[in-house]
Amino acid sequence: MFAFYGVDYLQIDSLLTDDEKLVRQTVREFVDKEVLPHIEEWNRAGKFPMHLVPLMAELGFYGANLEGYGCAGMSNVQYGLIMQELERGDSGLRSFVSVQGALVMYPINEYGSEEQKKRWLPALQQGKAIGCFGLTEPDFGSNPAGMRARGVKDGSNYILNGEKAWITSGTIADVAVVWARTDEGVRGFLVERGTPGYSAQDIKGKWSLRASVTSTLSLQDVRVPASSVLPKARGMKAPLSCLTQARYGIGWGALGAAMACYNESLEYAKVRKQFDDKPIATHQLVQAKFADMITEITKGQLLALQVGRLKDQGRADFAHVSMLKRNNVKIALDVARAARDILGANGVADEYPIFRHMCNLESVFTYEGTHNIHTLIIGERVTGMPAYK
After folding, report:
1. Is 330 a member of any domain?
2. Where among 228, 262, 287 does a domain terminate?
3. What is the pLDDT of residues 293-338, one digit of tens each?
4. Model-level pTM?
5. Domain holding 191: CATH number?
6. How far apart are CA 202 and CA 211, in angstroms?
7. Domain total in the chain
8. Catalytic residue ranges
9. Same domain for 296 and 218
10. What is the dihedral of CA 296, 301, 304, 306, to 10 degrees?
């Protein structure tokens, strides 16, 4: 694996503050030291590095862009740079941090009671508790409004029944934010590990996100107190707002994977010789690939930075984030595939990180809103007419 010194064709660093660069450098050093020397081993074994959970807590990664309850209170651009560097290491690691902050801590902070916030947010921020987000179901991914999970009020309790699928951190989570239909509309419930009738099982046989825990959740007559309901969350708007937070981080994270693949293939092309003993970096077709890669990465950096600045000003909305997620994941996957091609047969060996990133990005392309769903979100924004059905 070749050393990484950053990717900045258009002097985008000049648009970052010193604090933003410091955050990026801190995470970059963490990834270089703690992740990259071991990630291929974890990927082969299908193992999530649990020992990194407290280390990432000490660095303030969890809920980094939230205020209070021990959270770092970083800007959204700083948070984005954390996601970028983590995914340069591996999408599974970024997914864990993204779920912990954007899909568990965010809804508790935004929609929870003060009691819920005091109980869970410090523990989640410190990595003493792990959370998961239960929205997707076996038959309902892109159409979460079709969910079958049901919560029925029974005195001062609710009884939950349903199944959730493709849940990051499901089997290691201490608390699940579970979304279910009720007579009051879609509500969010905090379901703790060990609650009778609640269980989680790992999904095996993945060729993507192998260094990440992916699970199914089962709720069979799970009785939870009314105090477990997120009081301010009613209707689909609440879980969708959580997805917007996660998608924002993905838009930055995908750039990290793209940068890793670009850097690896560029350094490889400079030393790999073919035809008249010349480095393949001198070949026109190879240079065309690099021109395309660096151009798309640069455009993705500018898109991420602008959406981040708008978010810090309170001016970014879900359609802006959809463009960020849709574009940057697509270009990252394209970069990974071009980089794999440049490495030839070596591109499929885990001596190099490219094929792992490429496989991971196939999942990122699909989750948190598929590429096509984000296409339709943007289409509705520019035309004013929805085309989902």
Report:
1. yes
2. 228
3. 999 999 999 999 999 999 999 999 999 999 999 999 999 999 999 9
4. 0.96
5. 2.40.110.10
6. 13
7. 3
8. 368
9. no
10. -110
